[in-house]
Write a structure and sequence with these properties.
By secondary structure, the chain is mostly helical. The chain has a domain at 3-63: Protein of unknown function DUF1040 (Conserved Hypothetical Protein Ylqf, Chain: A, domain 2). It contains 4 helices and no strands. The protein is elongated, with a radius of gyration of 17 Å. It starts with a helix and ends in a 6-residue tail after the last helix.
Length: 89
Amino acid sequence: MKTHRVNELIELLHPVWQQEPDLNLIQFLQKLAQEAGFQGELVDLSDDILIYHLKMRGSAGTEQIPGLKKDYEEDFKTALLRARGVIKD
């Protein structure tokens, strides 16, 4: 994991973990994994799952994932033409 990912995870984790001070770190990570729908072993939980879950936690299920929103196109035809290079930004 790169340093900026560690910093981002800590910044996201700190305020929500403070809301549940009775849980130790492993218990809290287990809770986040369950909330995210992660079925595997805790050792296989990726930082991406934690980061995106923490970013999206408490938002509507229909809200777009951060990072993907910049590539979103409402119209399929526009998206196709942009991907083929016909429409330039």
